[in-house]
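Quick one:
INPUT:
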């Protein structure tokens, strides 16, 4: 089994943090995405979207999408702590809900803001600056919702650490790349939560 990834990228970090928390080690293959290694037919045969991360099993089966990869390991090792997808039905629903909320309203908008303004991938996609600015606006309109949730709960999906925390942590780390700063006056809970997770070695890897 091996994972195709690029250290330091938000999406690879989501899987890397998850694996570290679970104590799972697998071989890593570095893909130079800025250099376009992911645009080759060979890589597109591994990853449906041509994006990293992508997991390849020993029988050749491939899985792309960071959360799908994490889910696969959660199902493979259901008793390996910590559980990061929820245990009770309501907990599972809340984890799924918050993971999707943070990904779609936070991370997706942050990616769109970065890609369309910085235009680092203009060799492979149309970059629309106005779209980048709109995405940044939507991102900044979403962040207060995350602050509110963390002012009421220790973790993004409620009481326990989950995949939703990993997505939100990676989002907060990415904010400087889209020139969004969060200060202690407006975001005390989000900053305290981020600082606490930063002390966990699994969140320090990249
Ligand atoms: N929803 C996907 C997003 C994957 C993604 O956007 N990967 C980026 C790195 S963070 C990538 O491969 N970029 C290369 C490109 O756009 O050509 C996931 O969670 O796996």
């Amino acid at each position: 089994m091996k994972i195709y990834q690029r250290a330091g990228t938000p999406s690879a970090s989501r899987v890397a943090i998850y694996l570290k928390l679970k104590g799972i080690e697998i071989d890593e293959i570095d893909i130079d995405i800025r250099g376009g290694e992911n645009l080759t037919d060979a890589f597109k045969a591994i990853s449906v979207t041509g994006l990293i991360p992508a997991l390849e099993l020993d029988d050749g089966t491939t899985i792309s999408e960071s959360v799908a990869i994490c889910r696969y390991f959660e199902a493979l090792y259901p008793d390996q702590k910590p559980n990061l997808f929820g245990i009770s039905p309501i907990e599972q629903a809340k984890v799924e809900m918050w993971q999707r909320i943070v990904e779609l309203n936070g991370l997706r908008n942050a990616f769109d803001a970065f890609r369309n303004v910085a235009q680092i991938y203009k060799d492979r996609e149309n970059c629309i600056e106005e779209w980048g600015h709109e995405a940044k606006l939507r991102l900044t309109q979403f962040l207060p919702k995350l602050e509110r949730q963390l002012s009421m709960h220790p973790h993004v999906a409620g009481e326990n650490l989950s995949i939703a925390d990993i997505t939100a942590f990676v989002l907060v780390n990415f904010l400087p790349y889209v020139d969004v700063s969060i200060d202690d006056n407006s975001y005390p809970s989000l900053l305290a939560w981020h600082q606490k997770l930063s002390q966990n070695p699994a969140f320090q890897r990249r």
